[in-house]
Amino acid sequence: MKKQAALKVILLLSVAGLLFSGYLSYTEIFQNAAGYCYSASCSSEISGIPVCVYGFVMYLIIFVLSILGLNAKK
After folding, report:
1. According to the 3-state scheme, what is the secondary structure of 8-28?
2. DSSP, residue by residue, 14-73
3. Dihedral sign for Cα atoms in the order 20, 25, 42, 39
4. CB 11: neighbour CB atoms within 10 A?
5. Does the pLDDT at position 22 exceed 90?
6. Among 43, 39, 45, 10, which Cα is nearest to 25's?
7. pLDDT: which is higher, 19 or 42
8. Are 14 and 66 in contact (CB under 8 A)?
9. pLDDT tens-digit readout, 28-65
10. pLDDT-based confidence at 12, cuts 50/70/90?
11. For the chain, what are the domain ranges?
12. DSSP 3-state of 7
């Protein structure tokens, strides 16, 4: 697979990840959807930040890097 084709696949996967983790982050932060956990030991936060927000940031970084890779001069 060529570099440009690989970067396009990575870009599409990062968009899908952004949409999914963005939806989860939105529901966790703004709609307080934490009521799905039935056990008291369930924790979906690290340092007070919902885990899905970390996923959103990771996919955002991958998205930006793939855009930069596609726009880089040969």
Report:
1. HHHHHHHHHHHHHHHHHHHHH
2. HHHHHHHHHHHHHHHHHS--GGG--STT---EETTEEHHHHHHHHHHHHHHHHHHHHHS-
3. negative
4. 17
5. yes
6. 45
7. 19
8. yes
9. 888 765 555 555 555 678 888 888 899 999 999 999 99
10. very high
11. 3-71
12. helix
